[in-house]
Structure formats: structure tokens, C-alpha cells
Amino acid sequence: MRDRISGPLRQAIKASGVSMYELARQVGIAESVLSRFLGGKQGITLATADRLADVLGVGLVARVARVEPPRKRRSSRAQARRVISLDGERARRAELTTLASGLARSAHERFFASQLGVWKVERDFACIYSNRGADQWNRLLPELQRRLKAEKFRVVATAAYPENAYTNTMILSLPPKRNSGDVADLYERAVLATMAAQT
After folding, report:
1. pLDDT of residue 17
2. Given this model, what pLDDT does residue 3 score?
């Protein structure tokens, strides 16, 4: 890869007919650096190569191969460490917000037809999603939050996708002895109560 850039640049320097002293002065490097570069004994920075190309009136083109990164074999223990840890208070808000954003995108792109749903995220967490648009989500939110608080579910992260917030997600910390089925029941009751209040 290095020769694909430095080789043609060396050829352009030699073909230019400009003295090493003058070229080094115009580029802003020591003549000895240029001499070692021409002799293949020392490399130069990309910034220096760019300045040389400008002075010489040539363009540098680099091609980047698009290849899949190598996959490392992981033990099941290593894979377990890789999973975002969502255990209690150790869960960082940034991780949960990133997770909520990813789940919002997934709900929007892969589960749009279902409109409403609940996913078990981890042992102690569940995610509520709505594909009904920001207006309906905002109408549902007060009733949903009231019921969540009464049942001791704690909201730990929220997200929306795409920019118009058509799909919304909410990650909940599950109280002891509660599961995602309990969240689904509560969510359904909140939706029904909100619909009844609007009629």
C-alpha cells in the first residue's frame, strides 16, 4: 500500500527537474528528509506527501479495499462479556440510551406492522415500543407513566426513530418477581384507558 502512494510520488519528484533544496524549501521540510525519502530509507507523513503533490502539481489517489473485517472466535464467556450489562444500577445511561435507540430503529424497520409491542431485553429489563406516531405516543404517555409508577416499574431510557419520532421506545427496569408479560398487560390497559378517554 505504501508503495502505491510513495512510488509514484518519488517518480514525480525525479521527473520534475526541481532541485531537492528548492523542493524541500517549498514543502517546508529538511532537504535530508527529502533525500532519505527519495532513497527509500525514510517515509513521510501524509500531510508532507500532500504538500509535495501540491508543489509538483500532481494528484494522489488511494484506493481502499472494501473487505469484511476478520472475525475472531469467541468463547461463550467472551460473548457473555460482550453483551451490554444491564444489571441494576451498574447500567450506564449511555448504554441504555444507545440500546433504546437501536430497538426503536428495529421496531420501525422490522416490526412496523405490529404497531405496539413489548420485548424482554435482559433478565431485569423490558422494552415497550409504539409505531403509532409521536402524537398518539404523547397522548398515551401520561396514563402509561401513571400506571408504571403505581406498579413500581422504573423508566431507565427512552428513544425515538426516525427524526420525526414516529416510533418510540421505553426501556423499563423490572421490579422483583415481575416480567415482560406483566409489562405487556400494563401497556395494554394503558392503551385501552387512553382510547376510552378520547371517545
Report:
1. 85
2. 59
